[in-house]
Amino acid sequence: MPDTLLFLLIVVPFLAALGCLLLRQEQLRSLIIIGTGGLLTLCALMLMASTPFSAAPKSILGISVSMLIQAADFFLLGVIGYYGYKHRNLLIQGLAVLQFVLLACFETFMVAPGKEYATFYGDTLSLVMVLVICIVGSLICIHAIPYMKEHEHHLQLEGSKQPRFFAIMVLFLGAMNGLVLTNDLSFFYFFFELTTICSFLLIGHDQTEIAETNAVRALWMNALGGAALLVGIMWIYSKTGTMDMQAIISAGPKAALLLPLALLCFAGFTKAAQAPFQSWLLGAMVAPTPTSALLHSSTMVKAGVYLVIRFAPAFAGTFLSLGVALAGAFTFLAMAVLAMGQSNGKKILAYSTVSNLGLIMACAGINTKAAITAAILLIIFHALTKALLFLCVGTIEQRIGSRDIEDMRGLLTAMPWTAVILVAGILTMILPPFGMLLGKWVAIESSSQQLFVIVMLALGSAVTVAYWARWAGQIMSVSSLGAREPELQPMLTRGPLAALLGGAVLLSALWPWVYNRVAGPGPGLANPASAAVMGFMIVVIGSGFLWAVNAMRQARTARMTRPYLCGAPENVEGTYVGPINQDMPVILGNAYFTSLVTEDRLTCWVNMGAGLMLVLMIGGAL
Amino acid sequence: MPVSVIKDFIEKSRLKSPWLVHFDCGSCNGCDIEVLACLTPLYDVERFGILNIGNPKHADMLLVTGTVNHRNKKVLKNLYDQMPHPKVVLALGACGTSGGVFREAYNVVGGVDKVIPVDVYVPGCAVKPEAIIDGVVTALGRLAEKRAEASASAKE
Amino acid sequence: MKSLFLALIGMAVAPVVGGLVSGLDRILTARCQSRKGPPLIQPFYDAAKLWGKEVTATNPWQAFCAVMYLVAAAASVGLLCAGSDLLLIFFVQAVGAVFLVMGAYAVPSPYSQIGAQRELLQMVAYEPLIILTIVGIRLMTGSFRVDAVFALDQPLLFKLPLLFLVLGYALTIKLRKSPFDISACHHAHQEIVRGVYTEFSGPYLALIEIAHWYEVILVLGLVSLFWATSIAGMILLVAATYAAEILVDNVSSRMTWRWMLGSVWLSGLVLSGINLVWLYAR
Which among A561, A562, A568 has the least Cβ separation from residue B75? Predict the structure, then answer.
């Protein structure tokens, strides 16, 4: 059974990608995407029944798996080198050549056939990742169908580039599934590089100048991570003589392995866009929104945190672990502060992604069982909510032509349905009884023994609430007396949004069950949000919610007054009668603290601080 | 029984907690200074639960000083409309009650009652703080009367 | 079952006590200014009057936010009385704070919007301090739960003196006292009309007043944890702290958000850092 599921989860997306490329007909492509999404979701759910499992498929469609992966490794490095050459980037070329040489040496001289082991392995962590990738990723791909149609309509292209776009999107899901299910370091390296290439192609999809610059930046940063990963893998192999990840992890912390593990963590930090590598993820927002949604929520950056969480037991209790926690917590705080100074909605989302991944990294670094559980739960809820928020912003941007949150002021009038979904999404990000906050709660409780980590988490979480609440507040900022028009949207746009929000709310309500399922049995794992506490919160806040909805309905019949402007008369809505009887517009704006949080200047300091943290982290492994 | 107790308490509270908003329509500031003097320790109107709240949306009483002119009559009307019922209006000083010495001026509409209904007129130039406090207490009587009339008409 | 019962009692009694404390506050403040001040039950007159006023609104969403603010404030007091997790209590009160801000944002009036932004800055200032205080309590008791505090045989104040000061900072902001009353003043004077409260009127303002009473009780409850070994000690500590808050309110002027954020983060972090280092070093 696992073998079949593995085939469906990893290989079918590759075939579907091929289908998207070859069958250039729109309806057919939509059908392939929806079908693949449904199949992946189904397989992921079925995988729940058979975890934990291990499997060692020897061949696929008659070709030896390890041969195939080896060949594909060199091909991928060739592709990276080609793009480095095409964009005249010496760094990428150098990294590609370096990895090519290293890999060639490694494969020819070092790797000796050892004893058999499972090349694929699934436990709770992989299962959670597969579920997130398949369900959230598929929903994003489905939302992309109407989005990309509108996007290309807007760009007025000569020929459609959608086949290529969707092929890479679906391929990405397959690569991620492979990455989280494999138990072989060389396979892991292949899938890791594959996600790098996919993200590079997606970021540069629109082929504008800025898109290409940002794509190249993403490529070199991630190639750097890939090189670190390869060196780490070679090092680990030379010390242990095995590529079996479970064998390495279950052996527990070993002093000799710390430095290669630090390199692996470094690779995870580049992939997860942790400071000082956040710039590639920030640049990625030039791509069409589904790309950002995919990169930020269910794939790519989650591969980075997955890598660190996966290997966390192998460095538990060491200084490296503390280094990871400090670097993660620092990223959490610094990115939250940077988000405070932004008015670009997508940039706020991007900074918040990096910030939340920092929190997950910090949990992995604290490295107790409760902290790891918190990290996994944060992955689930972050993926759901962040995908939702990105898709909302993309939908809004196509309608109002701006991604600036100042332009979303009073969005409730123009797009009532999407506005409510967006506000609800933001609230699931910061308030109890929703999963993100409960995860943060467990994280703070388990980090109470680390002074610096807890101080940074405390500061960061306050700032986080502020920048989200500001955005949610002004979306509802409306004084219009006129009737609102109902909002029309394609089903494929609206469905994924509703599904993502519903998923986040439902899983939050099921928190005690989800927690136990993820944490598994074990001591020291008392869930602070127990069923009793959650029950109290759901009953009180839930009934409060019903009362509030009722109050809102009654308020619709109340006498409507105008906003208080010192009684200044108002002839036209949104203006007041000023000097010489002119209608002066009422212009409201948020403070973005530009004197304190200047992005350029602060980023420079943050990168320096984060660089020091990385040196601390890797140096601690010496 | 408890419902009527609560209702009675609410009716009593209306007289125990008059919150004021003070609007200067174009006074010479003589009356305004006297209004603020009511807050000082000498007069201490907070004894009666009176607060100068400065916001029509929270206020029960509108205190208007100065003559109404063509420019600020709309502002006065707006402020009055933004106050939730039940509410009362006090016109303070010679200017507020009638337009005072400016009533014949080309730009002047006249007293406050030309624009909004006035419940209590407090004369003086400038009004004395004692007179203002007396006016507020009289206005509370008016408020009670208004409530009684309203409940009587509701019963019919 | 017992904790549920305690939570319900707390949620029922808290607004009464909170209203009386607010009344006492007004009298004491008046006495500080050599005035007589209103009757003790003046806050109840105010709330009842507001409840009886006409319902007016600019945006129906305001009603939603006002109700959620009250519910969250009541729930946090309930959790405190039930002896629940301190961080949970803190997070639930943050729900109320966020909805108050959203309600103020709901109306495009400059006064309430500036108030909302200042309120957010106040949250940024006090939230880390409260979390750090809770972490200090955790290090003393070995648990995040309120009932663990009552199991100690020595008042927390002796081991967490600096964190108590830090909590005092946070509470001054939370109680809307000078010099930190920048988003809306507890008293009826403010340079931006009534800040976050500006656009709420009638019954909605009454709900917000009651929610504020709950918050006063929550704040005083947190203070009382620092002398949890005896009832007399609790009352004495709460009374002394509140009196100090009133004194600070009357002798200081309103400051800017910049000053607030700078001073609160700097002094708060230094003080709590020192106190936490003592605890870690034990």
Answer: A568
Query: pLDDT class for A360, splitting at 50, 70, 90?
Result: very high
Q: Which tens digits make up the pLDDT trace of A491-526?
A: 888 888 999 999 999 998 888 888 888 887 766 567
Show residues of chain B in contact with C36, CB under 8 Å: 44, 47
Residue A11: Cβ-neighbour burial (10 angstroms; 0-12, 13-18, 19+) = middle
Does the distance separating the beta carbons of C194 and B54 come in below 8 Å?
yes
**Nearest to A96, CA basis, from A108, A85, A111, A110:** A85
Kindly tell me the sign of the dihedral angle through the C-alpha atoms of A610, A611, A613, A618.
Answer: positive
Scan residues 376-405 of A and list those with Cβ closer than 8 Å to B. Answer: none
Q: Which residue has the higher pLDDT, B62 or A580?
A: B62
Cβ pairs bridging A and C (under 8 Å): 203
Closest residue on chain C to A536 (Cα): C4
What DSSP line would sit under C230-261, residue for residue?
-HHHHHHHHHHHHHHHHHHHHH-----HHHHH
- B78 to A577: CB separation less than 8 angstroms, yes or no: no
Interface contacts (A, B; CB < 8 Å):
25
| Per-residue model confidence as pLDDT tens digits over B116-147 | 999 999 999 889 999 999 999 999 998 888 88
Mean pLDDT of A91-116: 81
Rounded to a whole number of angstroms, the distance from the CA of B77 to the nearest CA of chain C is 17
Is residue B9 in some structural domain? no
Nearest chain B alpha carbon to A560: B82
pLDDT of A621 > 80? The answer is no
Do A85 and A212 belong together in one domain?
Answer: yes
The pLDDT of residue A225: 92
Chain B residue with Cα closest to C31? B41
Give the whole-angstrom CA distance, residue A241 versus residue B69.
Answer: 94
Residue A427: pLDDT over 60: yes
Neighboring chain C residues of B20 at a CB cutoff of 8 Å: none
Asked whether residue A560 is domain-assigned, the answer is no
B66 part of a folded domain: yes
In terms of residue numbers, what domain contains A429? 316-479+487-520+529-540+585-622
Q: How far apart are the first and last CA of chain A?
A: 44
Number of domains, chain A = 2
Q: pLDDT by residue (tens digit) across A244-267?
A: 888 888 888 888 888 889 999 999
> Residue B117: which domain range?
18-155
Residue of B nearest to A579 (CA): B71
Q: Are B76 and B111 in contact (CB under 8 A)?
A: no
Q: What confidence tens digit (pLDDT) does each residue in A588-599 have?
A: 888 888 777 778
